[in-house]
Structures are given as structure tokens and as C-alpha cells.
Amino acid sequence: MQEKTTSFSIKNWSDDDKPREKLIQKGRSVLSDAELLAILIGSGNHDESAVALSKRILASTNNNLNELGKLTIKQLMQFKGIGEAKAVTIAAALEIGRRRRDGVIQKIAKINSSKDVFELLQPILGELPHEEFWIIYLNNSNKILHKEQLSKGGITGTLVDVRLVLKQALEYGAVGLVLAHNHPSSTLVPSNADKQITEKLKMAAEALDIKVLDHLIITEKAYFSFADQQLL
Fold this sequence. Notes:
15% strand, alpha+beta
């Protein structure tokens, strides 16, 4: 007698166990991260359900959705039951979530503290695998006139064009600058290069009555402020 094959597709679960029905009946907030991920992938593999597979995927990133968002399509496809289509779906959903958060953060129009700078730039810099250097140009009320990436790949005096920074500050009518860059290593200790470029920009800006108000080192979950630590 042929043994019946067990299906782990969500559509074959009892209604009480179906994440989709649970979301409809009880709301999205009651679902766990694994249940939400299971809705995206729809089915597991021959050995585990979609929720069990989702739990295993999340466990590989210490149940951190930000870390999950860093996985490439190829890395996601290493999990049995995750083909290219499912991997792309997961990546797309997490990118939508990131952009949604970024959209909310972009409403920050004025810098009142180092925390404001962190909340503004963390969604942009916090998860990058490489270093980027950004500048925020402010008016005399500390309202944001403009922000932009100045360099990518590392922080050295040769990569930061001081003349360009000051030229743009004058064009925007800025009287204050906030510097920021990320440390992919998650260390919050400023390097000698970090200190040197801060001092270089500070001295050059002062000649034009423009003040460097702060320099932040940003990681995924925390930041270091030169101003807060009285290093400016």
C-alpha cells in the first residue's frame, strides 16, 4: 500500500493554523514574524511547514528582520524550499518595509539633536556593507536645506572634497553643517581619519562663517556624536 505524502502547503492546514486567515480575522499585529514570512513563501518543503521553514530562516539571522533584509537572493535560496521566486518575494517585501520607514523618517525637517540626525540617516547608512560620508546643510534655524552623499568607500582626506562642500554650502545658503558616516564594523570609536577630516572641514568652514555642528558615526543600532562627546 502506497504511503500518503504529507503536504506542508498552508492551504492544507486547519483554519486555526493558517496565517492568512489569522491575519484577516485577528489583524496583522497578532502574527509573529515567522507567520508573516510564511504568508510570503506560501509553502515549506517536504520536511517542514512554511512557518517552520520561516522560523529556521529567521533563526539564521538571530530573529532580526534588519539582518534578514541584508541576505542576498542566493543566500535565501540556500534554504531548502526557497526557490528564486520565493527569495525575490521576501527581498521585495523587506525592501518595501525599509522604504516605508524611510518615508516616515524623511518628514524630519529640523535638526534639534544628534538623535534627529541618527533617525534621519540610519535608514540610509545603518545597514550598508561599505562606508559612505554624508553632509546635511542647515540654515540658521537648523532646518534642513539639503542632504547628500559626499563620498563612498572610505573616509580619507583625499575622498572628501572640502571645496565642493563649501561651494554647495554657499549655494544653499547654509550656515551650519552636520557630517555623518557609517561604520559597517559596528564600532563607534572614531578613527584618526575621522578626526582629521572633521577638523579639516571645521577649520575651512569657519573661514566662511559656516559652523560644523556635529559629526556622527552611524551603525545599525547606535551612533557616536562628536558634539555630544565635546570633540568639536
